[in-house]
Specification:
The chain has 143 residues and is α+β, with helices and mostly antiparallel strands. The protein has 2 helices and 5 strands; from the N terminus they run αβαββββ. It has helices spanning 7-25, 48-66; strands at residues 38-40, 87-99, 101-112, 115-126, 131-139. It has a 5-stranded antiparallel sheet. The radius of gyration is 23 Å and the shape is elongated. It starts with 6 loop residues before the first helix and ends with a strand.
Length: 143
């Protein structure tokens, strides 16, 4: 005849299951990284997706400027409005963060009138919607 589990053993079994399931179902399990935290992107200069997002950020900035959406202030604080458009060079640094999609923080090198500068760009990608949006674009203060 089998014995019935006590309520104490059921509670312990349930708690053990919750702890184990939480550990293994958390994307950052065992990495010491907080879920939703920033992750450095390695080999950024050879990462095609990141380079394409950098190019997108420059093109989107130029489009918004051409369409009059940027006047004296920008997506951020780009103030050189009387100069030529930017030409994408490369992404030199990047991090990503899991949000409602993927948020990319990039240092983008671009040229304007032959002068190379670095810009901070933030792009959110939602692959399931085939969408990407430029949230921020401004001259980099620390590169």
């Amino acid at each position: 005849m089998a014995t019935r589990p006590t309520s104490h053993s059921l509670v312990l079994t349930s708690l053990s299951f919750i702890v184990i399931a939480t550990y293994f179902l958390t994307p950052a399990a065992g990495t010491g990284r907080m879920v939703g935290g920033m992750m450095e992107i390695k080999d950024v200069k050879t990462d095609e997706e990141v380079q394409q997002l950098g190019k997108f950020s420059v093109e989107e900035y130029n489009r918004r400027r051409r369409d009059g959406e940027i006047r004296g202030e920008a997506i951020g604080n780009v103030l050189e409005m009387n100069e030529g458009y930017l030409t994408f060079s490369e992404v030199v640094e990047a991090q990503k963060q899991v949000v409602s999609g993927l948020k990319y923080y990039m240092k983008v090198a671009a040229t304007r009138n032959g002068v190379k500068s670095t810009f901070d760009a933030v792009v959110v990608v939602k692959p399931w919607l085939s969408s990407k949006q430029l949230l921020h674009f401004s001259p980099s203060s620390n590169y």
